[in-house]
Amino acid sequence: MSVFTLLTPEQVAAWLASYALGELQTLTGIDEGVQNSNFFLRSTHGDYVLTLFEQVPGDQVPRYVQLMTHLAQHGLPCPAPVANRRGESVSSLDGKPAVIVSRLPGHSEKSPNLAQCAAIGALLARLHAAARSWPRPLPHQRDSAWCARVAAEIAPLLDADDRRLLHDEVRHQQTHRPDGLPRGVIHADLFRDNVLFSGNEVSGVLDFYFAGVDDLLFDLAVTVNDWCAQPDASLDGKRCAALLTAYHADRALLAAERAAWPTMLRAAALRFWISRLQDRHLPRPGKLVAQRDPDAFRAILLARMATASDCPWLAPDTGAS
Known about the structure:
The protein is of the alpha+beta class. It folds into two domains: 9-101, Phosphorylase Kinase, domain 1; 114-305, Aminoglycoside phosphotransferase (APH), C-terminal lobe (Aminoglycoside 3'-phosphotransferase, Chain: A, domain 2), CATH 3.90.1200. It is built from nine helices and nine strands. It has helices at 9-16, 61-73, 114-131, 144-154, 160-176, 216-227, 237-250, 255-281, 294-305; strands spanning 24-29, 37-43, 46-52, 91-93, 96-102, 183-186, 195-198, 201-205, 212-215. The strands form three sheets. It has a five-stranded antiparallel beta sheet with strand order 1-2-3-5-4, with helices on one face. Strands 6-9 form a two-stranded antiparallel sheet. Strands 7-8 form a two-stranded antiparallel ribbon. A hairpin with a 2-residue loop joins strand 4 (91-93) and strand 5 (96-102).
């Protein structure tokens, strides 16, 4: 969540008049994340989050809104999109697609405990199950093809060691990432700052704007790389066990997925290393833009490359087939 486009209170107040949300009281830019412009908005009717889409084409935004609505109808704690007086959940603000959603209770956890990791594993399995009945096409915008394309764009801007590592890992993924794994709509960005907790219960799942169809295992790997990473980039075995066991209880991992686990952890690390390198070397202009350190995911990638065991935190007799 960043602010690439500054909005004035007068602009937003005029736009808000098309909603039955009362009058604008406060508007505060959110300086986290890297994709869209986001604001906390308080009106006389309550607290909301306003998102201004900076890169997603306007005709694609309704798909993400519809997905959140679908998942909420299946019991996931997603923000509720608010429609304007014309019944539109997506409208135009400052010439860009804009969405306003409910602001959910709770807070994100920087240091999740075992119960919270288990809650995330269970939630991700529920999300994958609920998304199976969502019928609309939704391409994953940052899939392996995107990684290869952006890697080629940024490689000339890197030093020799990073350029070599990037080239070698893209080739490794193209050669070793298996086809035929279970696929479906994935969140693709289920980091700690995109989840809210009330105690050990998940109270909110945020930011579905990277969602798309891909390997379900990739989504699990993205999640584990963030929720279970230690300061030295290695994985915390207890947190991994809690998260994976809870996920596996609702959707048993196939033998092929367990075998592909080391490669998928590397794929997930590569995807975020590339996006952070892109943000550093090919930045977009903005006013309150959070730029995350690409070296953090470089370290995670190197740590995952040193790990060859398939899902060691799941006992072999848990029922996978």
